[in-house]
Amino acid sequence: MNLTEIGEKLNTKTLLTLAFLLLALASYIFFVEFPEAKKELEQAKNETLEKKIFNRTLSEVDSFTVFNEFLDFTIKNDTTWILTEPVQDFAEVNSVEKILSAFFNGKIERVLPDSTVNFHEVALDTPLVRLKFYFKDGKTDSIALGIGTATKDFVYAKRNAEKEILLIPAASLISARHNLFYFRRKNILSFAPTDADEINVKTPHGTFTIKKDQVWKITSPFTASANQAAVYNTILIRLFSLRVAEFSANNPGKNLAAFGLENPSYTIELKSKGKFLDVLYFGKERESLVFLNTLSQVSVRLADKNFLEIFKDFNFYRDSKLQVFEVEEIDKVRFSYDKIVIELAKENESWFMERPVSKAVTSPNKPQAIFYMLLNTDVENFLEASKENLQKTGFKDEIHVEFWSKGEKFFDTYFWQKENSIYANSKIQNCLGKIKAKLPFLDELKPKISDLVVQ
């Protein structure tokens, strides 16, 4: 036998030995270690379950009733958490989750035989709080809570009809020892700010409507592009952050007049695709609060009246642009100044003068330049177009500019100068404003006939 054959025999024997050892190790792990590990896991799981106050999950709860020193009330899981007794109302989800988490995620610190505890001293002869849980499978669980321990970390509790006394986390008592206000939902609205695409506001100052089609636009009392940030931050965020300060009447019935809600001072309608999401009605004021109810909830509540201040000046929600329009859609324009009237009309992409003479315009460059100049004009500050404000700004019919598109006039604005400021009064949008422009701006709005007609 040569050295090569001896080497091959040794390699084969070594591989067989290694394979046998690996098989033995695998068998040991499978038949010995795995069962032991599984047993340890089961034991740990059982110990964990034994330490839980209730071996249930939050999702299994159908309803629960709380009996405390304030009153008895019941909360039911019906898509969302609803108070059913003593009032019917939406429940505050965070408050409900706190109380359920305390009992279904909380652990037992210690179990004491009842013979070692004086029921009167720990307030279990007359519990501070009792709770009864009803589960979706028809079964129930109950627990009574006494006073806290000297360290205030735990409270004494008695579960169902068991004799043992439990020491459980103090959070269980804290979460259940609240009045009804704590468990009632404080948000006025239950949907997200982004759900609404139309907001109608009726106030003593007039009506205000904004609609969203990709972006928010004001449609009443004037037509204008909206300041997107102002609409979102000032209206939507504050509207959906509005909270109940006090619950007043659960079933006002025919007594709405007592709260000023028979003829509301403010009404806010929220719509999505033409359908009502909800309507808020605001009535009389009481100190720093205002009475309100909604279409979805007739109960009368009180909220911060300062919220209504955001609707006192609709101009605040305008886009800073003097006017937003599509340049290519303009087919007629009129300039009136110094007793001169110039009318231009568009036909087949060419511009023609109709007044004061009927001649072809040399090119669209001049009218187009004016259109884009006005399109990019910003208003420094808006004012209501009242007689008083017109007088303050020194209104004079210096320049009058009008645009049409397909027979409809959508730009109708007067421009004038007072000292070094230029003002504009939009008849279409019913607004007055000081615009951001230098004095040569007005010269551009006085085109010369010689600059327009074909020579």
Q: Descriptors for this entry?
A:
elongated, 455 residues
Write up what this structure looks like.
It is a single chain. It is elongated, with a radius of gyration of 38 Å. The protein starts with a helix and ends with a helix. It has nine helices and 27 strands. With about 450 residues, it is α+β, with helices and mostly antiparallel strands. It has a nine-stranded antiparallel sheet with strand order 4-3-2-1-6-7-8-9-5. A nine-stranded antiparallel sheet has the order 13-12-11-10-15-16-17-18-14, with no helix packed on it. Strands 22-21-20-19-24-25-26-27-23 form a nine-stranded antiparallel sheet, with no helix packed on it. Mean pLDDT is about 85; it is low at about 40-50. It has helices at about 5-50, 95-105, 170-175, 180-185, 230-240, 365-375, 385-390, 440-445, 450, and strands at about 60-65, 70-80, 80-85, 90, 110, 130-135, 140-150, 155-160, 165-170, 200-205, 205-215, 215-220, 225, 245-250, 265-270, 275-285, 290-295, 300-305, 330-335, 340-345, 350-355, 360, 380-385, 400-405, 410-420, 420-425, 430-435.
